[in-house]
Amino acid sequence: MKTTIRADKLLSSLGITSRRGVENFIKSHKVTADGTKITEHGQRIYTKAKIKVNGEELKKSKKVYFLLNKPKGVVSTARDEFGRRNVVSLIKTDARIFPVGRLDRDTHGLLILTNDGDLTNMLIHPKYHIGKTYQLAIKGQVQPSHIEKFETGIELEDGITQPARISVIQKRKDATIVELTIFEGKKRQIRRMCEAIRLPLLDLMRIKFGNLTLDDLKEGQYRELTGREVENLKNLVKNPA
Fold first, then answer.
1. Residue 238: how many CA atoms within 13 Å on its side-chain side?
2. CA pair distance 182, 159, nearest whole angstrom
């Protein structure tokens, strides 16, 4: 009896996109399994099927993992329909890598890129409770009432945010620097949280993802993750908080 697997799981295991990105991928590419076109991300495929993308056969590739200090003005996609500079173009590799989650164009800082679709899917899924820490520069003074709202949840159009951790790092005359850790990844979440409670956001930088930090990595630079760092990420999803 032939064993089958969902298209999204198989394609992510081949390292061509994350499971969340499979639907868009099969809409923009001709993907076939033993000559049959794949049209749905949940389509069942023979596990040993010959997979082709635009006529080119895919084979399982070695997993690679990169840490990038993303600059502002760069989009967090593998390719961009408007021809804007994207994060993948900043890394020299022959692997088909993609970002783990996204930072919007005006947000800078830590971003992981890989061709490990299964790990990507778990790292960005809220059920695994992976913390992502940001440094925010907010115009004016942050009040205790603002802190409480971050810590209890803020009402957005797509639901109330999960409780976040927040601490004030520095109080300046005209701005406040805070560190904020969230455990989910709604679209433009931190910007929308600040807008909802009327905090003018001057700058947003991700400084930590799970146990990973930028350390001395300069903006626009990247490095490969060490074997231990990759294992630590895998352990985070094996043993969620």
1. 6
2. 15
Q: How many CB atoms lie within 10 A of CB 140?
A: 14
166 and 144 in a common domain:
yes
Over the chain (241 residues), the average pLDDT of each successive run of 10 is 79 72 81 87 84 81 93 85 84 91 95 91 87 97 96 95 96 96 92 97 97 95 96 85 59
Q: Give the pLDDT score at 15.
A: 67
The whole domain housing 179 covers 131-209
The verdict on whether 104 is a catalytic residue reads yes
Cα dihedral 165, 169, 173, 175, rounded to 10, equals -50
Element (H, E) at 118: helix 117-124
106 in Cβ contact with 55 (< 8 Å): no
Catalytic residue among 80, 104, 118, 203: 104
Q: Which domain-ending residue is among 57, 74, 100?
A: 57
Tokens 């923009």 sit on residue: 28
Asked if 74 and 181 sit in the same domain, the reply is no
Burial of 159 (0-12, 13-18, 19+ CB in 10 A): exposed
